[in-house]
Amino acid sequence: QVQLVESGGGLVEPGGSLRLSCAASGSLISILDMAWYRQAPGKAREWVASITSGGSTNYVTSVKGRFTISRDNVKNTVYLQMNSLKPEDSAVYYCHVDGTTYFGQGTQVTVSS
Asked: HSE on the CB side for 13, CA within 13 Å?
């Protein structure tokens, strides 16, 4: 059983930045492949970025060059640094353990002037 708690969301103006955190408990993330997903109102949940246990990363095309996923195995936490935010990035962002049904409760990101 893995528990995931996201934080760091909020309201930011276009072009701004936010850093999301996902604190995990119940398992060491160092052995897990982790991911971030997002879901905007009326849309399906969308994969955003992944990081493997070995540190390899991958991103959806729409966020490449703007978002960075990383992990701190000592703190058992995964991060999503989001720069140059756009209104279309507004969504609830969820942390996920790849290959499982584990998702966190989500954190709201709103990009608006």
From this structure: 1
